[in-house]
Amino acid sequence: MTLPLLTLLLAAVLVVAALYSSVGHGGASGYIATLALFSVAPAAFKPTALVLNLVVAGVATCIFFRAGHFSWRLFWPFAVTSIPCSFIGGYLSLPDHIYKPLVGLVLVASALRLSFHSERKTEPVRHPSMPVAFLAGALLGLLSGLTGVGGGIFLSPLLLLLNWGKVREVSAVAALFILVNSAAGLLGHLSSLQQIPSFVPPLAFAALSGGVIGSYLGSARLPVAGIVKALSLVLMVAGFKMLLV
What pTM value is reported for the model? Predict the structure, then answer.
């Protein structure tokens, strides 16, 4: 890869990280789409996205947690089953012609539904039942490991649409959910004797910079309505990228 092309790739990763981290996401689907646009080998998609997810989700978790938005009660029922399932998914491989259209359709459907969502202050937040949370966590964890997308991009719309949490609370929970599942998925990937590409470290630095910017804006500066719109836009763009790239 030439220096000008690498510079453009670094800039794209920084922008993706900033946008996704503003809503508590690691940005894996955006990184996968970006790597595809830059003609990077598909075998590098999952490990690269998982590493960048770890960096950005780690930053987002710290910033949203310090801002007081994190809810352990909402987080743990989903995480307890998602972590082992994410490891299994990271170990396994799914053919591109199956997982990319599937993930793309789910993202676009979530974006369309979420675009009509607004946080209603008069409607109390409901907490999911344990069996439902365990099942959802297992499914999202497996999908996270198989595709390398972290799982938060599916968890956020689920929590918001079912009124299981407030917007910034959901962003904080999604950030840690992505962090633990990306770590589990990456461990599963490495345990199957697959490697991390050599160009990942500079991309990780770009993702770290974008993650700091986006998390700071999302945790305190951006209005709630803006965060919901940003999340919907992110889901829509990522979905079409997965379907078309």
Answer: 0.77
